Amino acid sequence: LSYEWKENNLFSIEGLAGSLFNAEEQKEEDRRWNGLAYEKLANGSSVRESDIDYLNLSFLYLHKFGKDGELAFKAETYQRKNEDWEDRTFAYASGEKQDISRVNESDNSSYTLMADYTHDFPSVKGKLAAGVKALWLENDNFNDNLFWVNGEKELYGSYTDHYVYKEQVYAAY
């Protein structure tokens, strides 16, 4: 959506929003030929769900100074959320049973503010460009992985992972 209220002034808003959901179920069977018939070694099943939501919104104001100069202000935000879930079960001919459960959760955000000035110098075929920018990033993550063998939690296959990342960038150019 853009609006030009005077010849040298433009205001624009852009946005994008979306959601995606995915679910799948799978059955597996592992067999081996023993010379006479197929022998069942293992069977399993898995269920997986995924959910992604995102939002992007930006604002732009542009002012022109005649033919040769312009000043632009821009603000932008981007957010994304992601969730995963997976559950797998395997039963082996040996009698061993394995269960794997995995959860993934993520939250991303980005915020940007910027101002740019450009001025053309046609007589020398040159251009002056200058600006400032501020950027804030955030990233959260939660990961949970549980691995069970015959009903007992496996120490080395089970873990929880928390991840937080933040960054701030300030620039003048």
Task: List strands and helices in order, with pairings.
Elements: E1 2-6, E2 9-33, E3 38-65, E4 69-92, E5 97-121, E6 126-149, E7 152-153, E8 159-172
Antiparallel strand pairs: 1-2, 2-3, 3-4, 4-5, 5-6, 6-7, 6-8
Question: Main traits of this protein?
Answer:
173 residues, eight-stranded antiparallel beta sheet, elongated, mainly beta
Can you give a write-up of this model?
It is a single chain. With 173 residues, this protein is mainly β. The protein contains no helices and 8 strands. The chain has strands at residues 2-6, 9-33, 38-65, 69-92, 97-121, 126-149, 152-153, 159-172. Strands 1, 2, 3, 4, 5, 6, 7 and 8 form an 8-stranded antiparallel sheet that branches.
Number of DSSP helices? 0
- The low-confidence parts are none
Helix content: under 10%
* Structural class by secondary-structure content: mainly beta
What is the H/E order?
EEEEEEEE
Question: How many strands, what sense, and barrel or not for the largest sheet?
Answer: 8 strands, antiparallel
Can I get a quick summary?
By secondary structure, the protein is an all-beta fold. The chain has no helices and eight strands. A hairpin with a 2-residue loop joins strand 6 and strand 7.
